[in-house]
Backbone:
């Protein structure tokens, strides 16, 4: 099996695993770190309301549990965890920077040295084992001070604050990091706007306008960061990132097929700007139809045009189904995206369709669309794992999921001619689920002894998938 994959993929193919600061790091009150929007995402049914900007939660409430505060405590375990990644043969490790570790409020003039030193130590630990860091500059992370004072990414002022952060990071980690992603799953702003952009919707406002304003500011920031990265270090490679997964029409009824086209466009329209350099006409019409406008400043169109990304990265967990029957459109949910049920596919314990061939379809769709190198930065199975009496964890369901998806990726490379830079599973170690806040929805090859309410030893155990 190992030989089979080595023959298909280039020698410098970046195999590894992926995490995010708010879902694995913990240590929220250490190292002078500030408060972030993602810290305030509670466990339980209110999580979705907060994440969608429908419930205001700008301070901690003693009636709720906030899983990101401890997460799985990578902050104190990073040396042990990276050693385990190396034992698995990782060539890359995707992680994100917690903005409030570097600028606790987001608007300080001087960065926090303790935060900078923490990530420097993490990157050096990676290099000790020959692991290349892949760093997401913004993975659902916004200083709450900026949410409270300027409204998060609603404000164009956020671009200045973000550029200041990125300039510090590019200069400090020159020689340690060369692969960067700007915004994680940028299309998620349409579905989880408080998480993705620090947006809480005020009563009677045009929610679409608030969202489009925020995402335009992120798109301009992404382009300016891409420009900056190339100027600071020619070795830097910058990618965008989208939550992908092709929509199938439920039937061959023309209305279903058209709905699938529209749903797929809603996934890709913002990545289109980052990879092609302009808003496509269908996106402009989509925005106009919702009584919103793109808040272009004088130089924005040139900035977007001249600073497209080097590669396109994406997450894939499952395919989705579009139905022109509105009652069927919300029958199941995959990564917060609504979908009709696909009767031809098995599902995970959380109802996500398992579709390895859909992975190949999505890969080809993205490559045909952008003609840029691709990087699979999230793919994995969330499942309940059981620790046997002898301490072993038999997760053959995860092994099967990943084996079949890697085979589909191999076919995309070998048979379809797609250029793929690397593949990082989500998450290589158990962490907090973004959608539900649970740890019981486990993704890792490494089990962390922690329950949904933060109880446990936080001891690491190897699952069968680790081997």
Residues:
């Amino acid at each position: 099996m190992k030989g089979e994959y080595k023959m298909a993929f280039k020698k410098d193919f970046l195999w590894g695993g992926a995490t995010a600061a708010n879902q694995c790091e913990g240590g929220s009150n250490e190292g002078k770190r500030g408060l972030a929007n993602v810290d305030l995402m509670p466990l339980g049914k209110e999580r979705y309301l907060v994440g969608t900007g429908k419930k205001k939660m700008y301070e901690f409430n003693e009636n709720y549990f906030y899983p990101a505060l401890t997460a799985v405590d990578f902050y104190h375990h990073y040396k042990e965890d990276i050693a385990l990644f190396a034992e698995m043969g990782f060539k890359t490790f995707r992680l994100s920077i917690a903005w409030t570790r570097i600028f606790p409020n987001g608007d300080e003039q001087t960065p926090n040295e303790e935060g900078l030193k923490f990530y420097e130590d993490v990157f050096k630990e990676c290099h000790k084992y020959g692991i290349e860091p892949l760093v997401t500059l913004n993975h659902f992370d916004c200083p709450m001070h900026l949410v409270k004072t300027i409204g998060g990414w609603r404000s164009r002022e956020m671009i200045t604050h973000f550029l200041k952060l990125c300039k510090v990071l590019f200069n400090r980690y020159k020689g340690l990091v060369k692969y960067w992603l700007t915004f994680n799953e940028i299309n998620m702003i349409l579905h989880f706007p408080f998480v993705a952009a620090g947006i809480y919707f005020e009563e009677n406002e045009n929610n679409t306008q608030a969202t489009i304003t925020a995402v335009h500011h992120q798109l301009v920031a992404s382009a300016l960061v891409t420009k900056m990265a190339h100027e600071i270090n020619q070795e830097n490679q910058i990618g965008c990132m989208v939550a992908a997964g092709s929509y199938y029409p439920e039937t061959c009824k023309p209305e279903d097929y058209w709905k699938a086209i529209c749903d797929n466009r809603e996934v890709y329209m913002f990545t289109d700007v980052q990879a092609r350099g302009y808003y496509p006409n269908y996106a402009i019409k989509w925005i106009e139809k919702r009584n919103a406008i793109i808040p272009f400043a004088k130089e924005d169109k040139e900035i977007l045009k001249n600073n497209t990304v080097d590669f396109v990265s994406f997450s894939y967990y499952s395919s989705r189904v579009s139905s022109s029957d509105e009652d069927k459109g919300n029958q199941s949910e995959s990564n917060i995206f609504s979908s009709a049920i696909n009767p031809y596919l098995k599902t995970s314990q959380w109802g996500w369709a398992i579709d390895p061939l859909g992975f190949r379809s999505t890969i080809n769709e993205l490559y045909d669309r952008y003609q840029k190198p691709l990087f699979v930065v999230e793919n994995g199975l969330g499942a309940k794992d059981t620790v046997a009496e002898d301490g072993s964890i038999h997760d053959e369901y995860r092994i099967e999921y990943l084996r079949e998806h890697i085979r589909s990726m191999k076919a995309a490379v070998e048979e379809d001619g797609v250029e793929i830079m690397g593949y990082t599973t989500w998450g290589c170690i158990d962490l907090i689920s973004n959608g539900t806040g649970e740890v019981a929805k486990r993704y890792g090859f490494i089990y962390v002894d922690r329950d949904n309410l933060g109880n446990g030893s936080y001891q690491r155990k190897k699952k069968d998938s680790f081997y």
